[in-house]
Amino acid sequence: MDRRAFARALATLAAAGALPALAADPVLPKGPIRVVVGFPPGGGTDVIARIITNKLGALWGVPVVVDNKAGAAGLIAASEVAKAAPDGNTLMLGHINALGIAPGLHARLNYSAERDFTAIALVGKTPQVLVASRTQPVKTVQALIDLARKTPSQVTFGSAGSGSAQHLALALFEQRSGISVLHVPYKGSAPLATDLLGGHVQFAFEGMTTATPFIKEEKMIAIAQTGNKRVKSFPNVPTVAESGFPGFDASIWFGLVGPAGLPPPMVARINADVNKVLAMPEVAARLEEFGAEDGGGSPERFAEFMRIERAKWAKLIKDKKITAQG
């Protein structure tokens, strides 16, 4: 065996020997660890979950797998994780729908977003994009507002469904701008995109992960983004906030949570390792592609962030009399 082969063999043995030590760490879950995702494989939430879980599995030396429990905009996944044992073997990549919007939208849920989860770490916030069909001439926020004021309730806005994050971004925009448009709810982003491309609806707020390919292929017009600052992947698209509406923020966010009662030392360790993963250059680069920024920080930061989001969206839902899609 030559010297290089011997060195490689030693490295392999050392790595293999390190795995049981990591898996035996009393602070970490024993594994295998499921990270439940409330959406199908291939979507933005699923992709972000896989980026994070792959790195955590390598750090911990135990299997960390994504378990897709799609349905009801993430409520099915949240209900399952809320009932799981607080041993760290079942976690969830929480999403704005189930943990931020649903508590204000549904009178009865099978879980309490406030009491049934342990906040671990905010993974990222990604703005939505105000997009337009290329069949209409509007290219700025002000031009859109002028058009809506000239033709009240005739400008058409599609959304991924009544009560969706996309619908609430529209509702917030209507409230702040004082306009009234015709809301056309769809059953998901795919049929909405089809009709927007065909010019059957004029505008929509859509998640950046969904909208980006259409914008880059110049099939849709990007008018504005809904975060509190421009993301690096779209530096030339202004925010709604800088277009005359300071403080406007309708981001879609993702964060790691577990069932209530996770041991504090375990939460602290997982949080530290998620922060470590988010700081890896290759992870940061991938998340930037989706416009996912501002992740990291303490569990307390994430818990407080979710409390503020729940209060914000509950008030808007009440003020605008928004109901869930039947």
Automatic annotation (TrEMBL):
<protein>
    <recommendedName>
        <fullName>Extra-cytoplasmic solute receptor</fullName>
    </recommendedName>
</protein>
<comment type="similarity">
    <text>Belongs to the UPF0065 (bug) family.</text>
</comment>
<feature type="signal peptide">
    <location>
        <begin position="1"/>
        <end position="23"/>
    </location>
</feature>
<dbReference type="InterPro" id="IPR042100">
    <property type="entry name" value="Bug_dom1"/>
</dbReference>
<dbReference type="Pfam" id="PF03401">
    <property type="entry name" value="TctC"/>
</dbReference>
<keyword id="KW-0732">Signal</keyword>
<dbReference type="InterPro" id="IPR005064">
    <property type="entry name" value="BUG"/>
</dbReference>
